[in-house]
Amino acid sequence: MAGETELASSSIVIKHRESTDHDSDALPDLHPVLRQVYLNRGVTHEQQLDRTLKNLPNYQRLSGIDKAVSLIKTAIKTDQKILIVADFDADGATSCAVAIRGLRMLGATNLDFVVPDRFKFGYGLTPEIVDVALELKPDLLITVDNGISSVEGVAHAIKKGCQVIVTDHHLPPKTLPNADAIVNPQLQGDEFPSKSLAGVGVIFYVLLALRAALKIEGVFDKQPVPNLANLLDIVALGTVADVVPLDELNRKLVYQGLLRIQAKKCVPGIIALLNIAKREPERVVSSDLGFAIGPRLNAAGRLDDMSLGIQCLLTDSEQQARDMAEQLDMLNIERRSIEEDMKQDAYKILASLKPSQHQHEQWGVCLFDECWHQGVIGILASRIKEKLNRPVIAFAKGDGQDVKGSARSIPGLHIRDTLDDVASLHPGLLKKFGGHAMAAGMTIAENNLSLFIEAFNVAVKKRLNNELPDDVLLVDGEVPDNDINLTFAETLRQAGPWGQNFPEPVFVGRFKVKQARILSQKHVKLSFETLSNSRVIDAIYFNVDNPDSIIGLNEVVVAYQLDVNTYMGRSRVQLLVRHLEEVKQF
Asked: For residues 167 and 162, what is the distance between their CA atoms, to the nearest angstrom?
């Protein structure tokens, strides 16, 4: 099942990023290309590039944090059972690991965690997962990366005699759960300046506040004050893997975490996952966290039980970490195979749709196959979204007569708010939903799927103001041919961390094609020659829809990222091609 009209891959429009500042004195001591890259991202002052832990926003600006700290302090002092209720993605796993490790550092000994099986219990602190948690006889439940929408679950836990602290970063619903404390920078009226903290960042801030309170009470008068910066390797991983915007605070947290990983002062699980992904810890950058570790960690929650991923981050045994990393890698291989099959199914569905003059334009794409894997539909939605430049929801069979959907959006369309539009116009149509600007999840009755598809399409069209978006690739300008070298590529690698809303630089240039050959039927290995000085530069173009079309091209305009390719101890500059167009000869 899908929408009513045929959809083709949208053509890409290359546009130069617009700088927010034209002050010639801004950032004067930088390479001019890097200076422009920063200006294009709104950086106009050197203090915005400060990546130290100085001048972090004060934890006291988070509403609810004092009450949360008071409850945790009492639980630690009286040896109450503290149970962490995690989510089943990488942010949830890292949040749980940070909570367990951090609370142990601060004196808690009666600790455990539970993470819902997404196929049995779904997302969040549901009444059903509360019943599972009660078997562990907790006194205090602390949610991490979930709970802000768990009205029924929180009520059930409190009725059963538990205290509940919700720590979350998702957008709050109109009715908040009646928890004993809620810490979430997205709450209305909250004065914390960074609204982009991941769930792992929120619990890290709770730990900072708890440490400060314990220090005031003299708990550390006769022992060293715990160094919570030791947790930043895990904080960095969760922040990047959850694709939250890398604002100034998140860049600091991620950068400091990367430094710990590069120095191998991180948990054994991260080293093991990097090794199995063939990444060198000493050279790790933020993209390695997002594309090498994150998917392997997420594979546990997608196909099996995220407890495996959490334990990988909790163990201090290098051998156990290696064993668990191998299991996670095998799950990720299985996930990729399932994803590829589902992607081919989706392409067939899209190809089978016939356009008609009576059919309306498809603004949002909904796809459903009763055989699809519920744990992989989010990735599928992301892949189709990238191909079509439309918001996409992929559905799989849920419990009973329900289907569960995972949505991915495009720039300029807030997907969670769009679902809220649908829920407001069609009360009861969405049984559950929640999420961010760019990703969301939902549950609806299968017999309401057609109605939802129509309502979603109308809501997307309204949100986009009746204008179908271009698939825009923003570039940062050109790099002089002489600067396309290893030194400048290394400079860019270290100039981040790059990520969501602070993207890795993309440049545009014109080159002659010296060689082009197809690898694995979908990648193209290229050699380019610069026009000004005839230097030959290696390039790679991954996942090309029609690789044969590139063979035989003479001169091309290329949008690319500067990369460092290290092999057998030798590093060379390489272009990662994002888009390529033939220069027409007249």
From this structure: 16
DSSP class of residue 293? I
| Helix, coil or strand: residue 465 | coil
DSSP letter string, 316-357: --HHHHHHHHHHHHHHHHHHHHHHHHHHHHHHHHHHH----T
Neighbour order of strands in the sheet with 111-114: 111-114, 82-85, 140-144, 163-167, 181-183
Secondary element (H or E) of residue 111: strand 111-114
Determine the angle formed by the axes of helices 294-303 and 232-241, rounding to 10 degrees: 70
Between 69 and 353, residue with greater pLDDT? 69
The whole-angstrom separation of Cα 422 and Cα 452 is: 8
Span 539-558, pLDDT tens digits: 999 988 889 999 989 999 99
Phi, psi of 438, rounded to the nearest 5 degrees: -105, -10
Burial of 66 (0-12, 13-18, 19+ CB in 10 A): middle
Task: Name which of 403, 406, 404, 372 is nearest 392 in CA terms.
Answer: 406
Rounded-to-integer distance, Cα 46 and Cα 33, Å:
16
Q: Compute the residue count for the chain.
A: 586
At residue 116, what are phi and psi to the nearest 5 degrees? Answer: -65, 140
Q: Cis omega (within 30 of 0) on the bond before 411?
A: no
- 557 in Cβ contact with 581 (< 8 Å): yes
Per-residue tokens: 94: 């890292």
DSSP 138: -
DSSP per residue, 422-451: HHHHSTTS-SEEEE-SSEEEEEEEGGGHHH
Nearest to 257 by CA among 232, 282, 237: 232
Residue type, 116: P
Q: So what's the pLDDT on residue 356?
A: 42
Going by DSSP bridges, is the β-strand pair 439-445/402-408 parallel, antiparallel, or unpaired? antiparallel
Q: Which of 438-450 are b and which e, b meaning 16 or more Cβ less than 10 Å from the residue's Cβ? A: bbbbbbbbbebbe
Hunting for tokens 């392409």 — which residue is that? Answer: 347
Q: Tell me, what's the pLDDT at 545?
A: 80
Q: Which helix (H) or strand (E) holds 76?
A: helix 65-77
Averaged pLDDT, 381-387: 92
Based on its alpha-carbon atoms, the radius of gyration of the chain, rounded to whole angstroms, reads 25
User: Does the predicted model carry a pTM greater than 0.85?
Assistant: yes
| DSSP assignments along 168-217, one per residue | --SPP-SS----SEEE-TTSTT---S-----HHHHHHHHHHHHHHHHHHT
